[in-house]
Structures are given as structure tokens and as C-alpha cells.
Design goal:
Helices cover 72% and strands 1% of the residues. It is mainly alpha-helical.
Length: 316
């Protein structure tokens, strides 16, 4: 398609949801989504063939995560997102907040570690390389809250309110690179919080909840700033194509509302998942304690009776 002026398509008709969800076929994300589905499916089939099980819920979560990426990046939303701030913000919020949560609930690292074959002694195969990566200093750094929270915040303020955003939006490649960055930041931010896959940073449940809410208010403030502004704040969207029939400031306010709303919805989803995991963890601990009590109950009773007998003997 012919793009000009910050990569905006000058021939786009007025936006409707039907037009936005038409297939766009962006090659980069289309190939990535197909690979994601194919590799995950291969791993699940490999487990099933050797008699192991894999939770259906995790598979469903992964598929939904890939589908949300495809809807945001492999439809006409990708073209409208080059010209409309509101549509771009929908893409940003889906790819950085909704998709990562669903993908992480699919536990891809756990699946890979279970499905990949182990290499022979003294050799390193894909599984060994993945284990080394998960335990590397690099992963410890990028999954630590001292890195993830500032990066999560900077992806909003340092990008949209500086010339960097306009520079990236001058080309489709820059736009795709930006979306890849949003997806990566979302994954490393939510990974230690979700705690489904193994990782170097595994805080307790209280700390996970604190990490979650440490970043969310900044999303809300960002959305409010866009909604309250009296003039367009991002150069790329100052002069939308006349064919869209929109006004730049109103579109920016809509984008701010979308950013504000998305700061609340994923937080609730993740919080529910954390509370559920916490309850399951407590149930497992309780069951282990009960089994230990069943195994050692008679011995403890005998020791207690012996203790009482000794007290009685000394009293005499």
C-alpha cells in the first residue's frame, strides 16, 4: 500500500469494526503466529504420544494469546493503526497487556522443557540451551522488577512523548518493531508476576501483587493525560487523512480512554489468576502436611505418651 506522511495511508475509508477486522496479512506477525501455534501444537502432541498429559486450559490460553496478536497485527487494524491514534492504542494495549497474559498462562517454557529431548552426556541440545538461558544472568536482570517496572513505564512516556515515536511511525518496519517491543515488554513484566513458567525471579504472592499494581497506575495516568490534553500531543496523528472523517484531538481523547480502561481490565484478570494460584498452593501445602501427619501420627503419639509417662515417673 502507498504510505506517506508518517506512514499513513491516505486512501483509508472511515473506520468500522468490520473493516478493521478484515484480513491484512502482515507477513512478519503472520509467520510468527503460525510458528507459535505450530510449535506449541507439536510439543503437546509429543507429550500425548508418550503418555503424558497437558492441561487443556493452558493450550486454550496459548491459542487465544496467539489469536489476539493476529487480530491486532494481521488485520486491517494494522493499517488503520498507522493513521488513527485510537486504533493504534487498541493494538498497543492488546499486544502489551492482553496477549502476554494469555501467552504466559499457556506455560510455553514448561511445555518446551517437558517436550524437548535431552541431549547425551557432555552435549548441549535445545533443552539444555533453554535451561541455561532461564538460569542466565541476562534473564535475572530482565525479569527483575527493578528492570521490568521502569521499562513498562518508559514504553509509554519515553516513547509517545518524545520524537522517537514519530520516527518509528515513518515506516511500516518501524511500526512493527515498536509492536514487537510492546509484546516483549509485556511478557517480561507479567512473567514473574504470573509465575506459571520457571524463571530466575520468583517472588511470593504478596510481592507479585505489589509488582502488578506498581506499574498499573502509570497506565491510568498516561490515559488521563491524553484525555485531558487541549491539543494533539503526538505529531504522527496531528493531521489524519481526510478520508477517515475524524478530528485529531477527539481521536486522541479516545486513545486516552482506551489506555485508561486497559490499565484496569488486565489487572483484574491477573489478580484473579494470582488468587487462584495462591489458593491452590495453600491446598497443596495443606495436603502435604496432612500426609506427613498420617505417616508420623502414631510415632508422635507414642513419643508424647512416653513424655507424659516420664513426667509421671518423676512426679512419683
Amino acid at each position: 500500500m502507498d504510505h506517506s506522511g508518517h506512514g499513513m495511508n491516505m486512501d483509508l475509508p472511515p473506520f468500522t469494526l468490520t473493516r478493521g477486522l478484515e484480513f491484512g496479512g502482515d507477513p512478519f506477525f503472520l509467520v510468527g503466529c503460525l510458528l507459535g501455534l505450530g510449535l506449541y501444537g507439536w510439543a503437546v502432541v509429543r507429550l500425548r504420544r508418550r503418555g503424558d498429559t497437558w492441561p487443556v486450559g493452558r493450550t486454550v490460553a496459548w491459542v487465544l494469546g496467539v489469536v489476539t496478536v493476529a487480530l491486532a497485527m494481521c488485520t486491517q487494524l494494522n493499517d488503520y493503526g498507522m493513521a488513527m491514534f485510537s486504533v493504534h492504542m487498541v493494538q498497543h494495549m492488546i499486544v502489551s497487556m492482553l496477549s502476554p497474559i494469555l501467552l504466559l498462562l499457556g506455560a510455553p517454557m514448561t511445555l518446551a522443557l517437558r517436550a524437548l529431548p535431552t541431549a547425551g552426556r557432555g552435549r548441549k541440545g535445545p533443552r539444555e540451551l533453554l535451561v541455561a538461558l532461564l538460569h542466565s544472568r541476562y534473564m535475572r536482570v530482565i525479569t527483575h522488577p527493578a528492570f521490568t517496572i521502569p521499562m513498562f513505564i518508559a514504553s509509554l512516556y519515553a516513547l509517545y512523548f518524545t520524537p522517537l515515536f514519530d520516527f518509528l511511525m515513518e515506516s511500516r518496519a518501524g511500526h512493527i518493531g515498536m509492536m514487537v517491543h510492546f509484546l516483549a515488554v509485556g511478557l517480561v513484566f507479567f512473567w514473574p508476576i504470573m509465575g506459571v513458567d520457571p524463571g530466575p525471579h520468583r517472588p511470593g504472592y504478596v510481592m507479585r501483587i505489589l509488582e502488578l499494581f506498581a506499574g498499573m497506575p502509570f497506565h491510568a495516568f498516561f490515559g488521563i493525560a491524553l484525555m485531558m490534553a487541549s491539543e494533539p500531543m503526538v505529531g504522527t496523528f496531528v493531521n489524519p487523512p481526510a478520508s477517515l472523517g475524524i478530528e485529531a484531538l477527539a481521536d486522541q481523547q479516545a486513545a486516552g480512554g482506551i489506555a485508561w480502561a486497559f490499565s484496569e481490565i488486565p489487572s483484574v484478570v491477573v489478580l484473579i489468576a494470582l488468587v487462584y494460584q495462591w489458593r491452590k498452593s495453600e491446598e497443596r501445602v495443606s495436603r502435604r502436611a496432612d500426609r506427613a501427619a498420617d505417616r508420623n501420627g502414631d510415632q508422635e503419639l507414642a513419643e508424647y505418651n512416653a513424655y507424659l509417662a516420664s513426667l509421671h515417673a518423676r512426679g512419683r
